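User: Second chain of the day. Same drill as before.
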Amino acid sequence: MKAIYRQMTLRARIIVSFVLLMVAVMGFVVAAEQLDYDELRAYVISRSLHDEMHRLQSELANGTTPTLSPGSQLYDSRSVPDDLRRFAPGYYSADPPDVWHLLVFDGDGQRYYLRQDAERYQYLEHVIDGYALVVILLCILCAFWIGRLTAARVIAPITLLADAVQRKQTPFPFQDARDEIGVLARAFARHSDEAEQFLQRERCFVGDASHELRTPLAVISGAAETIVHQLPDDSHLKASGERIVRTTQEMQRQLTCLLLLSRDPQRLAKEDVPLRPLIEECMTRCHPWLAGKPVTVRLDAPQAPSIHTNAELARSVVWNLLRNACQYTDQGEIRIAVEGATLAIADTGPGLPPSIDPQQFQRFAPSLRESGEGLGLSIVQRIVDHLGWHMAVESSQTGCRFTVDMSGTGHGAAQSR
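Assistant: Same format as last time:
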């Protein structure tokens, strides 16, 4: 039976379950219709009167005065009312509105008439109504049981499949099933295989690109540093050579950052990173963007605070945000504040362009490409998402403020106020 059930589709299982439910309900209905409530009531009352009759006969045979229950009257052949005298031995009942029950019997050589009022048997109506309620409750319980059993059998494979997908368990279960669960499991398996192949190609590309780029960048950096050292101090090429050295070093750092972003966040090397020395290093690197500008950079950070994270990724966040602030602030000040694990960088620049959505810095968006801000902010957004941090952005025509919560309790989504 179970083998046949497992071969059914989900649609067929649900249909069969509802058919079984209707069969059970109709069975209860048919069983209820087989009962004649009037005959049941008459049988119960007749049995009660006969029990009362046997007790009265015993008391009359002993010569004692019979004790009658409330609502009962006992007549003999002399005291019986004329309207009851015509009844022969047996059980009788009167129809509404004057309902009563009568049992005529013989004893000690004469006839007796035991009459009882209908109020005595009012409980039978409650019993019959209770029976109907029991039938209804049984139907509801049966429907609940069948529905629960069906839901458990239908949902259990979906739950197991969802759990396997969440835990990245391979191969996925139920791929051999012929029902809708099997179709879903095979679709998940195909999608998982395609995603794994894509990730593998991406890893290979990143690994190959990093391997091929590291050596040329190191050669360019070394050659540029040699040229800068050999140039006279008054040479007009010295500034260009220093710029080549800075740009090459920046490319090496960005390459390292991109390689770290391609790895599993759970496998990143983490350590306690002091924030103030890291910020001061980035401030020193930003001097070329502040040359000749009336801009003051202020740092408000205690000496002690540190965060447990990857040093290179944290440095990249601080560097990209601070570089943008220095690059696009022509006058005023740049304020850097650290409170606990929260970093805030505010400037008095023009703010973000209206075409940029501060809630999501998309990589290589057209407006970002023109302004030159896109890749840096995109990398910051990716790092924030990668590390589980939270970044908030406040932008206006009088300045821009980036707040990064590095505690790891945020959702990694940028927000604007």
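The first strand starts at residue 72 and ends at 76.

User: Great, on to the next one.
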